[in-house]
Amino acid sequence: MTKLICLAAAVVLLGGVSSLSFAQDIGAGKAIYYGKGMCVACHGKDGSKPFKLTKLFKGEAYTVEEQKEWAKKEAQMKFLQKKMTDKEWADVNEYTNTLKK
């Protein structure tokens, strides 16, 4: 029984300690979306710009990892891998997940 409790406690602790264990900032994410990240150029002001190769953010929710994986695969976004920190990715993710239908 104690092993089960220890295992459960470890899962809870590890779940709370991720590679993104910092608070996300929607305001900072919005600033990056419109500035440094240049996301608005392809995704549009509200994340719904109809562009053949672009993921839509409006009405969709993605994890930071999903956004980073997408950026690795798309030629137009590969430069962002070196340009943005993990914190900036998390902030942009927090902002884009607020773009509702």
CATH class: Mainly Alpha
The sequence of SSEs as H and E is HHHHHH
Supply the CATH superfamily name: Cytochrome c-like domain
* Overall tally of structural domains: 1
What integer value in Å does the Rg equal? 16 Å
Quick structural gist:
The chain has 101 residues and is mainly α. It contains six helices and no strands. Helix 2 packs across helix 6.
What report would you give on this structure?
With 101 residues, the chain is mainly alpha-helical. The protein has a single domain (20-96), classed as Orthogonal Bundle (Cytochrome Bc1 Complex, Chain D, domain 2), CATH 1.10.760.10. It has helices at 2-16, 26-34, 39-43, 64-73, 80-83, 86-96. α2 (26-34) crosses α6.
Give the SSE layout:
Layout: H1 2-16, H2 26-34, H3 39-43, H4 64-73, H5 80-83, H6 86-96
Helix pairs in contact: 2-6
Keywords:
101 residues; disordered N terminus; Cytochrome Bc1 Complex, Chain D, domain 2
